[in-house]
Amino acid sequence: MTTEDVGGERPSELAGEKIGPTPAEIDAVLVAARVLVAVSAGSVATVEDRVALPQLRVLVMIASRGPQNLHSVAEGLGVHPSNATRACDKLVEAHLLHRSDDPADRRNLILRLTESGWQLVHTVMENRRVAIAAILAKMRVQHRSSLVAPLRAFAEAAGEIPEGQLWALGWTTTNASSTYQDHRHNSGPGMFPLTGG
C-alpha cells in the first residue's frame, strides 16, 4: 500500500506513531518560503518610492483594524510612540493618512486611511496575488490542485500568527481586496473627502 492509498499518511502514522519531517520535506518548504519572501519583497518594492516599510506597516495595520489613535498604532506595531508619531506625520504629509479629533475625546487624534492610502495598500496586496497567480499558472493543473490541502494544513499547524508580526512584514490581517471593495461600497461614489492631512 502506498501513501496515496491512505490519504498521504504513512502506515506508522496510521498506527498512532508520530514521525518527524524528512530532510526533503523541510528543504521543499524552505525553497517555497524563499519564493514567497521574494514575492512579498517585490510587492513592497513597487511602492517604496512613496512609503518606507515602517510607514507601510502603519497603513496595513489601519487597513486591517480600522481607524486608530497613535497609542494603538505604537502598541500594535510594538514601537515607541515617538517612532509611530514620526511615521504617521510623514503619511499625513503624503496624503495617505487623515488625522482628526476624536469626537468622544478631544485629547485623542484619530487616524484613518485616505482614498490614496487605501489604494496603496490594495496595490501592494493585489501585486502579491498577481505574482503568485503567475507562478501557479506555470504549474501543471494537477500539481496546483494538490497544493491546497497541504498548504492549509501547514498554515493550521503553524498556528495563529500575532497580528503585530504580520503588520511588521507589510501584511494585512484581513482580505485586502474585499476590505478595499467594502470601503468603496460604504463610501459610495464621490464620497472620498479624506485626501489631505
Short description:
By secondary structure, the chain is mainly alpha-helical. The protein has helices at 11-14, 23-45, 53-65, 70-77, 81-93, 115-137, 141-145, 148-158, 163-168, 176-187; strands spanning 97-102, 105-113.
Per DSSP, the total helix count is: 10
Q: Give the number of domains.
A: 1
Please, what is the average pLDDT?
A: 82
Residue share in helix: 55-70%
Count of beta strands = 2
Q: What is the C-alpha radius of gyration, as a whole number of Å?
A: 21 Å
CATH class division: Mainly Alpha
CATH A-level architecture: Orthogonal Bundle
Order of helices and strands, N to C? HHHHHEEHHHHH
**Biggest sheet layout:** 2 strands, antiparallel
Main β-sheet, spatial strand arrangement: 1-2
Unreliable stretches, pLDDT < 50, 5 or more residues?
1-7, 188-197
Globally, the shape reads elongated
How would you name the CATH homologous superfamily? Answer: Winged helix-like DNA-binding domain superfamily/Winged helix DNA-binding domain
Percent in strands? 5-15%
Characterize the structure shown.
The protein has one domain (28-187): Winged helix-like DNA-binding domain superfamily/Winged helix DNA-binding domain (Arc Repressor Mutant, subunit A). A two-stranded antiparallel ribbon has the order 1-2. With 197 residues, it is mainly alpha-helical. The longest helix is centred in the first third of the chain and has 23 residues, at 23-45. The chain is elongated, with a radius of gyration of 21 Å. It is built from 10 helices and 2 strands; from the N terminus they run H-H-H-H-H-E-E-H-H-H-H-H.
